[in-house]
Design brief:
The strands form three sheets. The chain has a six-stranded antiparallel beta barrel with strand order 3-10-13-12-11-14. The chain has a four-stranded antiparallel β-sheet with strand order 7-6-4-9, with no helix packed on it. Helices cover 37% and strands 33% of the residues. It is of the alpha+beta class.
Length: 454
């Protein structure tokens, strides 16, 4: 029965086909007139997958990361000196321009200061005059000493004359007592003794006077020598002042600025040049009081410098401020880097003060990590793609390397898994994705497209 009825139903159905199509069109029109809306997208249908570009995903890598405190800032020359005028005057010459290398002690400029130079010449003449005075005083000493010698000889002659007169007077006394000498001759002998005594006294007075003259002459020598010392001091001071008219570089390096022109009038203390030494560069930064406890002078530092991708420069912590900033509670730390490569100052750099090295760490791009604050602190997660579905995976942060733009993470995630580099509002847990290389049936906006429009 069923076999025989089937063809008849099939024929009847075929015969009613135009009418059925008409009825269907009528119903559709009726529904449109009645204000009924078509079924909403997704009702009874699966949502279209999110199409990802190759730039939207990254593979979890394993590698080494330096654990420590990171400081970012500008590399500046470790030595920087403002070369200033030390005397007032007019610039007589300038010998260096910006960017030129300069050696220590090299003459960079001269200052014309006539008053200073004439004063130096006058003091040098004063030294010569004072020295001539010393010569004159010493000649006086020599003359006085000769007078002392002559007076000493006179004293000795007077003493001999007195001794002879006394012997004659003694003989005269004997003869006079025996009546063999007249009274007149006896008195003459006594008078010769008195005359010899007077002559000795006079010779001794002359000797004392000559000795006093020597003392006075020696005092004149001392005074003259003092005048020489004073004149030499004045000459030295004037010479130093004259030497300051020649401006020299205090260190070897390069001229970073010149602020004076030929013929310009300058005052003492006015900056003429700025000289820097780029043999070593220094990065100054600040760290919190909690982190500074982990840092010691001499700790190794790895630098990564903008404009030198893939290159690592090494240095050390040179000094640490002894006090924290009372407002920010930050402590200044200075990192120094030898510069044999001749890097210029002013480059932006990141210095990592290495406290330990984490090997075989799971590394993801920094932009792939999403953080939020919770009651227990900061919570981090990444969006990982598993079996074509996005899963929000909580992770822990081990270390950040801002210079490389990577973060070491830990948790239920494995190497070679794929994560979304920069999640957007479309990136939600459970969303399906289509990865690069898959055949797309329809045009779908990718996260990269959305970021470009934003």
């Amino acid at each position: 029965m069923s076999t025989m009825n089937t063809p008849s139903r099939r024929a009847a159905s075929t015969g009613r086909h135009p009418l059925a199509r008409f009825a269907l069109a009528f119903l559709v029109a009726l529904a449109a007139c009645g204000g009924e809306e078509p079924p909403a997208e997704g009702d009874g249908a699966e949502a279209a997958p999110l199409v990802l570009a190759s730039t939207d995903i990254a593979t979890v890598a394993t590698g080494e990361i330096q654990a420590g405190v990171q400081i970012t800032g500008t590399l500046e020359p470790a030595q920087r000196v403002d070369v200033k005028a030390q005397v007032g005057g007019t610039i007589g010459s300038v010998r260096y321009e910006e960017g030129q290398a300069v050696g220590r002690g090299a003459v960079m400029a001269t200052v014309t200061a006539e008053g200073v130079r004439s004063q130096a010449a006058a003091t040098r003449a004063g030294v010569g005059s004072a020295r001539a005075g010393v010569g004159t005083a010493r000649a006086g000493v020599t003359s006085a000493e000769a007078g002392v010698a002559s007076a000493q000889a006179g004293v000795e002659a007077a003493q001999a004359q007195l001794a002879l007169a006394r012997e004659r007077a003694a003989s005269a006394q004997l003869l006079y007592d025996e009546g063999a000498m007249s009274r007149l001759d006896y008195q003459s002998a006594q008078a010769q003794v008195e005359a010899a005594q007077a002559q000795l006294a006079s010779a001794r007075a002359g000797l004392t006077s000559a000795q006093g003259q020597v003392t006075a002459s020696r005092g004149q020598v001392t005074a003259a020598e003092g005048q020489v010392a004073s004149a030499q001091s004045q000459a030295t001071s004037a010479g130093e002042q004259a030497a300051r008219t020649v401006v020299r570089s205090p260190l070897s390096g390069a001229v970073s600025a010149r602020t004076v022109e030929l013929g310009e009038a300058v005052n003492p203390g006015q900056t003429l040049y700025t000289v820097v030494s780029t043999g070593a560069l220094e990065l100054r930064g600040q760290v919190g009081v909690e982190e500074v406890r982990r840092i010691r002078v001499g700790d190794p530092v790895e630098f990564r410098v903008d404009g030198y991708p893939g290159q690592t420069f090494r240095g050390a912590v040179s000094r640490i401020d002894p006090t924290a900033d009372p407002a920010s509670r930050q402590v200044g730390v200075y990192l120094r880097m030898p510069n044999p490569s001749g890097l210029v100052g002013g480059l932006f750099a990141t210095g990592t003060i290495v406290s330990e090295t984490v090997a075989d760490a799971l590394l993801v791009p920094e932009s792939a990590v999403r953080t939020r604050q919770t009651e227990d602190g900061e919570a981090a997660s990444v969006y990982v793609i598993r079996d074509g579905v996005i899963r929000q995976q909580p992770v822990g942060i081990v270390q950040r390397d801002l210079s490389r733009g990577v973060v070491a993470i830990q948790g239920e995630i494995a190497a070679d898994e794929r994560v979304i580099v920069a999640p957007t509002t479309d990136t939600v847990d459970g969303a399906r994705v289509r990865l690069p290389g898959a055949t797309a049936q329809a045009r779908t906006t990718t996260p990269a497209d959305r970021r470009e429009r934003e």
